[in-house]
Amino acid sequence: MKIVNYQDSPSQKFDTETVKGVTGRVVIGKADDAENFCMRVFTVAPGGFTPRHSHAWEHEIFVHSGKGKVYVNGDWREVTSGTALFIPGNEEHQFMNGGGEDFVFICLIPSGVAEL
Fold first, then answer.
1. Could you give phi then psi for residue 70, rounded to 5 degrees?
2. Between 8 and 73, residue with greater pLDDT
3. What kind and span of H or E run contains 95?
4. For residue range 20-56, what is the model confidence (pLDDT) as tens digits?
5. CB neighbours of 38 closer than 8 A, spacing ≥ 6?
6. CA distance 56 to 52
7. CA-CA distance, 91 to 81, in Å (whole number)?
8. CB 58: neighbour CB atoms within 10 A?
9. What DSSP character marks residue 12?
10. Rounded to 5 degrees, what are φ and ψ at 6?
11. Share of the chain above pLDDT 70, in %
12. CB contact at 8 A, 59 and 109
């Protein structure tokens, strides 16, 4: 068993033309012998955004805190703390901070793909 505060996990910062103000952390993954899933926590700073992308695998998202927007099916939808999302494989998506504080969400992906 592993019990950890996500903020104690190593972080990787992303800041390019396609992704701005994003910090990612793998809190449970292959290093923990997790055989089926990887759990990641992303923090998007005010004004920040993830890249718009799609991939073959599904993933599940839970908004931990803050306000954000998610791009899905050509539209932007607002999400807040407590929102859960299911993103099927091959669906284009993107997240954006929609407020003045950090936007934090948990993202589950299948094992076997890049963890960050």
1. -125, 135
2. 8
3. strand 93-97
4. 999 999 999 999 999 999 999 999 999 999 999 999 9
5. 26, 28, 29, 30, 108, 109, 110, 111, 113, 115
6. 14
7. 23
8. 14
9. E
10. -55, -30
11. 100
12. yes
- The answer to whether 36 and 110 have CB atoms below 8 angstroms apart is yes
Phi and psi torsions of 43, nearest 5°: -115, 125
Output the pTM of the full model. Answer: 0.95
Amino acid at 23: T
How far apart CA 52 and CA 114 sit, in angstroms, is: 17
Angle at 40 between CA 62 and CA 100, to 5 degrees: 60
Strands (E), 17-65: 20-28, 37-49, 59-65
* C-alpha pair distances (Å), 39 with each of 35, 47, 73, 77, 100: 12, 24, 25, 23, 26
What structural domains and CATH numbers belong to the chain?
11-110 (2.60.120.10)
Contacts of 67 (CB under 8 A, 6+ apart): 78, 79, 80, 97, 98, 99, 101, 103
Of the chain, the end-to-end C-alpha distance in Å amounts to 22
